[in-house]
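Can you give me the bound-state structure? Components:
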Amino acid sequence: MGVVTLLTDFGLADTYVGQLKGAILTIAPAATLVDLTHAVPPQDVFAGAFLLWTAVEAAPPGSVHVAVVDPGVGSSRKAVAARSGRGDFFVGPDNGLLVPALDRLGGCAEAVELTQGQYWRQTQSSTFHGRDIFAPVAAHLANGVALADLGQPVELQRPFSVAISDGPHGQVLHVDAYGNLITNLRRAASASIQGQRARFVSHYAAAQPGELIALVGSSGLLEIAVRDGSAAALTGAVRGDAVELLN
Amino acid sequence: MGVVTLLTDFGLADTYVGQLKGAILTIAPAATLVDLTHAVPPQDVFAGAFLLWTAVEAAPPGSVHVAVVDPGVGSSRKAVAARSGRGDFFVGPDNGLLVPALDRLGGCAEAVELTQGQYWRQTQSSTFHGRDIFAPVAAHLANGVALADLGQPVELQRPFSVAISDGPHGQVLHVDAYGNLITNLRRAASASIQGQRARFVSHYAAAQPGELIALVGSSGLLEIAVRDGSAAALTGAVRGDAVELLN
Amino acid sequence: MGVVTLLTDFGLADTYVGQLKGAILTIAPAATLVDLTHAVPPQDVFAGAFLLWTAVEAAPPGSVHVAVVDPGVGSSRKAVAARSGRGDFFVGPDNGLLVPALDRLGGCAEAVELTQGQYWRQTQSSTFHGRDIFAPVAAHLANGVALADLGQPVELQRPFSVAISDGPHGQVLHVDAYGNLITNLRRAASASIQGQRARFVSHYAAAQPGELIALVGSSGLLEIAVRDGSAAALTGAVRGDAVELLN
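Here's the bound-state model for the whole set.
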């Protein structure tokens, strides 16, 4: 019995995450639950997709990942589950949220639209598919139910991608909670952003306090940071802004 | 060995929740711990009771629920444990916190005042009964100790209730972290609040951005919401304000 | 298979904590993970050390504690693991973070510098030793690997201490999320801080709303608090400020 991870935009102030977990443990009592984050900005599917992408590689191979950033809940958007080349399972809405993480773990080997209601909560609300559809399906996958039993084969929507690049032209993919600017560049080099130079360093302690620096972060991507400060505040940069490698 | 859920007003900035969990796992090492929420507004017993009410139905039947919102800790308020009709156990202060959730799971089948100190931490602080009394008792219940062994039969205090209604007159029970106004009405209908009309929709995506809407939420209660916004901010409504069904 | 606790300054908005957990469960799938807190102020090693000190006594004896508040990551600061007199293990940077908690659990019985890379992630980033070194090492300790196999004996750095005192002169060790001022004094007495008198009470409910009080908190230390308010806001006191026992 394996790991089930959870990533949502529910926050922790209400009991929505607790209800997801209760729904999973009701069906798969021996599952080990791991929170990836529940602080995805509300309904920001791209941010959720990026955060899921950052986290899945460190999870045990074969984990089940439930992700819920779902502005279209209750509409005609599909509910889906998929298996990656590495053997992890993903469950969530078909709005692009799952795709970068699937690609990171060897691509999408198989995907289904969730249509088999016997694997869901007996009655489903129109606002909380996380608890009523995704969580039960994830629990059944953790119990060993075959993906093909959960629904019909489907091609996942790909409304965006996390396009990693060797540069020299790149962009900010994500601004983290400390104001670090994570770029889509995988080179170890100094960089320019908003007209300011960020000197390459190999680790934080090599920077001066307050200095704008570039370093390779834990996901292998170049990050623009300020030692003991916020690069987002210092540069004014936001997601999508251009970054250029120097030298 | 089952699930032990936790709901408190401790927040996550200190280690109080971690200490609760350590105390439980010391006695019941195979328990599966689930956080419902730790962001109950400090000492707001009614909000804690409502949030517990929202969460317990999704938990596995037979779970043990520890809830600590306890402004009277150290005073003469009783410490109690109870069993619901569904077979879940509840542990916490006797201030009304546990009662709505008990009622939701089939009512209170049995309740005791916690008097048997051999099931507590060896020494108890006067400020942290969560760690020193409630957590150890919950762990013993998870281990199969009988409720009747923990203390003397008691009638629980009922200083308030979560009174669900068919309307047309209702009120706001809770304002969630997104500014959604959860009412005590279980009807699917448009509603009026603070002189504004909230149009009934079946799901969020059916609303216009910025529109005040009414929809049936994940607990089966009518919620007043704003797509991509805060109904609390738009209407100025707070807990207790009147809501009237339209149709 | 036992408990692995986690304490960091990573926050919960990103997936860093989730990646730590994935790294642990990849190696020790049956470990029970417990969050102590992830809200240590960024890079505040003393605050992290104090919070770890508050939490470890309630954990099951023999637990493994991973702590990451690590401004020197990637520099020449050592990575270490240690065993306490009680038999708990600690893993983290050698910057003082682990020492007060070790002392609380019977002192440091054995410590090693982590030098045996076969117990680490295959490739290590220079910014995230939590995931790449500390988490895998903690998982191997939970699996029963001997401390001596992980590296060479080392004397831990002790750049500060949590010096508990009987008074009458003491200081503020920590300001918690509610504005309570936790002192280094273990006496039950009224106290003076910033020229204001804090009356001793045995529990919160014995105070008047808004009254500045002193009471013995859950760690056995005298705390200055305000019922339904913030002692930090009322007194202006910060960490390090003097406190004097009265009578």
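A couple of observations. Helices of chain A lie at 16-27, 45-55, 99-104, 129-142, 231-235. The CA atoms of residues 171 and 241 of chain A lie 5 Å apart.
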